[in-house]
Amino acid sequence: MSEILDWQSWENRYQVGTTGWDMGQPAPPLVSLLEHDSSLEPGRAVVLGCGNGHDALLFAQHGFTVTGLDFAPSAIDFAQQQAKQLGLEADFLQRDIFNLEPELMGQFDYVIEHTFFCAIAPSQRSDYVKAVRSLLKPQGKLIGLFWLHDRPGGPPYGGSIAELSQLMASSFEQLSFTPAANSIPKRAGDEYIGIFQAKHFDEPA
To answer: What is the rounded CA–CA span in Å between residue 14 and residue 135?
Structure first.
């Protein structure tokens, strides 16, 4: 059985309610980041694996122009309903980030990551970095809340700081990377907030 899950696999999780990653609210470390980091000026942001839209709508509330992408139609439908109920402007699209349309490339000031890196198969992680870089404008930034646990199996798949740093180094400069101070209990001690800036294409790795 392939470790790479298709859209039907993710959709089934929403249909049967096995969405343990969904906290029913924005991730507390991202809430804190937006409240305390004045360097993150609002811009155009894309949220990978946006799920039910909690993090995407958090950024919309802070003045960002937000597009959320997810594999599962049910997640996209719920996120759209949430945006309408909250009176927020945000676009939600069913997309595969490993097969994106050219019109999305190079369009965003920020890529937002939260439980996406750990959800994809480890064999896809190099392609993940390429996809993130392709979405960003020159010197755009990846804002990531990474769950780097060491538990077997997955998803969510484990990872390490060393692996993440090595993967990102070819395309990004690390601006900051710190332990998340207010993770939910089951992720406490294993979450990190990282901000990475896209390198120019002519910069050496």
So the answer is: 26
Specify whether the CB–CB gap between 173 and 199 falls below 8 A.
Answer: yes
Q: What is the reported pTM?
A: 0.90
- Kindly report the length of the chain: 205
Amino acid making up residue 158 = G
Domain locations in the chain as residue ranges? 27-148+163-198
Q: For all residues of the chain together, what is the average pLDDT?
A: 89
Counting beta carbons within 10 angstroms of the beta carbon of residue 43, is it exposed (0 to 12), middle (13 to 18) or buried (19 or more)? middle
Q: Tell me the per-residue pLDDT of 85-111, one tens digit each, with 9 for 90 and over.
A: 999 999 999 999 899 889 999 999 999
CATH 3.30.870.10 is held by the domain 27-148+163-198: no
- 8 Å CB contact between 70 and 49: yes
- CA separation for the pair 126, 145 (Å, rounded): 18
- The DSSP element (H or E) to which 57 belongs, if any, is helix 54-61
